[in-house]
Specification:
heterotrimer, A alpha/beta (about 325), B alpha+beta (about 170), C alpha/beta (about 300), B: about 170 residues, alpha+beta, Nonspecific Lipid-transfer Protein, Chain A, 7 helices, globular, disordered N terminus, disordered C terminus, C: about 300 residues, alpha/beta, TIM Barrel, eight-stranded parallel barrel, 11 helices, 12 strands
Chain lengths: ~325, ~170, ~300
């Protein structure tokens, strides 16, 4: 049986301590700049904060993974290199990378630090994964949320590295690392700036009828009735009309979160090494609730007990959950 | 959206009660906010450019709203009657105990937003920064404030928590 | 060096007959130097036009065009892995790789790097060059100043450098088919409903503002990218190839407009008016190039 490590999000030092205390095997985090894909206002770590956080985590046997998972635009590569140097100096346990230039730099400059391949690299076939393993010595791949469990089991047989899959949180619809939707409307890039629907471009308007409209850079993304649950103001969760559909519909996906708690035994059996919880932008309350619940579930499964999964639906987007592609390829 | 125009005119009698309540709570608010600022200076760095933003925090069942400008050099935290609100850079509206639980990270802000219990308006980035800044504070700000007023303070907080828990029972997200 | 005009791979599900006619005209009439062929978006469509590929290649090469075969942007299923491997095995024509699975299969044999391969910076381009890349098409969202740095580095390594200057921008790809979803179907049971939208299926916001186009698993910009005014600066900065993406407009005439501007035979104002005439009712954008929202159209502060 695989170790089934629990990989938990940390947007702030306090959230990191919360995740560690709630039983995370590893936490992942990033610096306060474009070098990671959650470059959100007021979030993330200064080098000093990371130093203290690494000490806190290591004292309790928890690993710290540093996300350097964006794509430097030409002329700005040094920022990513410096972030890697700082991370190595502070003793992080692994770098999570996507860009080949960044991966190459770390493989040459910090060969003792593990490399994990970010979901932002969009490696979804054994050949693509093997490329990163053979060229950069990648030790673990974070799989895109588009594969069924039988497909994951098959990939596991054909690759020389560990597999990490998302089990809970925001359910990205587009191939990560290949999405310029935000940049198209806002001028800020998910790949280069680490933002997705930046708060600075989001507005909410309460309408006279009690509905709420969410807008991104002036484009209406969705309109929620007075009693309707809301979602993130991301383009891929918006409602639009098409020539044959006058009524606005969720053209990509409804506001819904991934929750694979019921599939954990199958994922472990398929050879998944690590389970990732999404949500560096979420609060300590979320981290505490989700990490504790999954800690208990994984411990139960490893002890051969039936896993009793607390109901986490309140923490899900639109208060709806899905097993997405993992359950059936009909999702596609 | 302009938060200051989101309200209709309040009746005259309610206006008077509101003004009186503001006068009563104002000294307490100032003590609370100065104490928190002194204890958690790191909070201001996460606010970045929004230290000068005017936040209107509207706890729906209180007789007044709160005006916060988290400027470390000129801190403002005051009770304001709803008919005299300042031009708000950002608006946060919800039930009092929900807001208190958000401040203390007992409740998740995104979840409260998804369920429509939390309404936000104005500059979304300001709200996100304030949320992330408060979320990085490890102790309970509510408890800390209650402590300042000794046993009566703790008793009031406990009573509020009980009332809120009873009220939201069965709503699926307490 | 005279910049080359290229024609990107057809993103849409045009019928075999439409494709044959389209490439016949390109071969006979278009001022285009290099043509990319092959299915990049959806592996289910490939069987419809694969059989014609050898004849199309022959036809275009006979007309003096360089032909390049492009690999799929997304590789997950067995048939997609096989299609990528088969292309990587070929010695002729050249191939353009759009997924790391293709890089793995190709090894260090010469190849081009496609726009889906995320060659964002000089470090990545240098890495790729060391592994056999001869040419890189930069990501569509890369701003002008980064293009200049990337182009300089790539030229120093002897690589060709390409930028999309016309057509809808690819904004996202997914495992899910949004054409099928919009028609209440799944990807496996799509019945190729995407064939009805030769220029993508338009999406509008709930307050009726055009925003995006759906093309199967791909999401595209509503506007056509047009870097007609920026072409001269691009080529002066080291960009060697300018890519036109096939849209449902007269691409021969579009190519003529770009060729005219590059050769100095057409004034910019006249050329822009002509391009708008050819793309009736379509908005143009160049926001990405100027580091602003991609949908925006930025007019130069002062005429060059």
């Amino acid at each position: 049986m695989s170790l089934a490590e629990l990989i938990c999000p940390a947007g702030t030092p306090a959230a990191l301590r919360t995740a560690v205390d709630a039983g995370a095997d590893a936490v992942y985090c990033g610096f306060q700049d474009a070098t990671n894909a959650r470059n959100f206002p007021g979030l993330n770590f200064t080098p000093d904060e990371l130093a203290a956080s690494v000490a806190y985590a290591h004292a309790r046997g928890t690993k710290v993974l540093l996300a350097l998972n964006t794509y430097p635009p030409a002329g700005k590569v040094d920022l990513w290199r410096q972030a890697a140097d700082t991370g190595a100096r502070l003793g992080v346990d692994a770098f999570i990378v996507a860009d080949m230039g960044v991966a190459d730099y770390i493989a040459r400059t910090h060969p003792d630090v593990r490399l994990h391949l970010s979901v932002q690299a969009a490696a979804s076939s054994p050949e693509a994964i093997r490329y990163y393993c053979e060229e950069f010595g990648v030790k673990r791949v974070v799989l895109p949320r588009i594969l069924t469990i039988p497909e994951i089991r098959q990939i596991r047989k054909e690759i020389p590295c560990e597999i990490e899959t998302f089990i809970f949180g925001n359910h990205g619809l587009m191939v990560e690392g290949r999405c310029s939707l935000t940049n198209y409307l806002t001028g800020q890039s998910t790949n280069m700036d680490g933002v997705c629907s930046p708060a600075s471009d989001v507005t909410y308007e309460r309408c006279a009828d009690g509905a709420m409209a969410s807008r991104l850079a002036g484009f209406t993304i969705d309109r929620f009735g007075p009693e309707e649950n809301a979602g993130y103001p991301t383009i891929c969760k918006g409602r639009y009309t098409a020539p044959h559909r006058d009524e606005a519909f969720y053209a990509f996906e409804e506001p819904v979160s991934l929750n694979l708690s019921r599939l954990l035994p199958e994922l472990i059996e398929a050879g998944v090494h690590a389970f990732k919880i999404e949500g560096r932008q979420r609060s300590k309350s979320y981290v505490r609730g989700v990490v504790s619940a999954f800690r208990k579930a994984v411990d139960d499964i490893r002890a051969g007990r039936e896993a009793d999964i607390a109901d986490l639906v309140a923490l899900t987007e639109g208060q709806k959950q899905t097993q997405g592609a993992f359950q059936t390829k009909k999702w596609r | 959206m302009n938060a200051s125009v989101a309200h209709g005119p309040a009746p005259v009698a309610r206006g008077a009660v509101s003004r009186l309540s503001c006068l009563v709570v104002q000294p307490l608010l100032i003590r609370i906010v100065r104490r928190i600022a002194a204890q958690h200076p790191g909070l201001f760095a996460r606010l970045g450019p929004h230290q000068q933003t005017d936040f209107v925090i509207d706890a729906t069942e209180l007789p007044f709203a709160l005006h916060l400008r988290p400027d470390p050099d000129a801190l403002i935290f005051r009770a304001v009657p709803r008919d005299a609100l300042p031009q708000a850079g950002a608006l946060i509206r919800g039930r009092f105990m929900l807001l208190l639980e958000l401040i203390d990270s007992e409740e998740d802000g995104d979840a409260a937003f998804f369920s429509r219990d939390l309404e936000i308006g104005g500059d979304t980035e300001a709200v996100v920064r304030l949320r992330n800044a408060l979320d990085d504070v490890d102790v309970s700000i509510a408890e800390e404030a209650a402590q300042m007023f000794g046993a009566p303070g703790r008793a009031i907080l406990a009573r509020l928590r009980r009332a809120y828990a009873d009220d939201t029972k069965g709503r699926g997200h307490a | 060096m005279t910049p080359k005009l290229t024609l990107g791979p057809i993103a849409y599900h045009w019928s075999a007959e439409e494709r044959r006619d389209f490439y016949a005209r390109i071969a006979d009439e278009a001022a285009i130097d290099e043509v990319y062929l092959g299915e990049v978006i959806c592996s289910k469509r490939a069987p419809f036009h694969e059989a014609d590929l050898p004849a199309t290649i022959e036809r275009l090469e006979r007309a003096g065009k360089t032909v390049v075969l492009s690999t799929l942007a997304e590789v997950m299923l067995k048939r997609e892995r096989k299609a990528t491997g088969d292309l990587a095995d070929m010695d002729h024509p050249e191939i353009e790789i759009n997924n790391a699975a293709g890089l793995y299969a190709r090894g260090t044999r010469p190849h081009r790097i496609g726009p889906f391969m995320n060659g964002y910076n000089e470090a990545t381009i240098a890495w790729m060059a060391g592994k056999g890349a001869t040419h890189v098409c930069l990501p569509t969202e890369l701003p002008g100043e980064a293009i200049a740095v990337a182009a300089k580095a790539a030229r120093a390594l002897g690589l060709g450098v390409e930028v999309q200057v016309f057509g809808r921008a690819s904004l996202a790809v997914s495992a899910r088919c949004y054409h099928a979803r919009a028609h209440g179907r799944t990807k496996d049971n799509c019945q190729f409903v995407c064939e009805n939208d030769a220029d993508g299926m338009p999406l509008r916001t709930s307050d009726d503002r055009p925003i995006l186009r759906i093309n199967g698993i791909q999401t595209q910009s509503e506007s056509y990218v047009s870097l007609l005014p920026e072409c001269t600066a691009l080529t002066a900065g080291g960009v060697t190839h300018l890519r036109l993406m096939p849209q449902a407009v007269d691409m021969v005439q579009v190519a003529a407009v770009f060729r005219g501007v590059l050769d100095g035979a057409l004034g910019l104002a006249g050329a822009e008016a002509r391009l708008q005439e050819l793309c009736d009712g379509i908005g143009f954008s160049n926001g990405f190039f100027h580091g602003q929202a991609g949908y925006r159209r930025i007019t130069a502060a002062s005429p060059a």
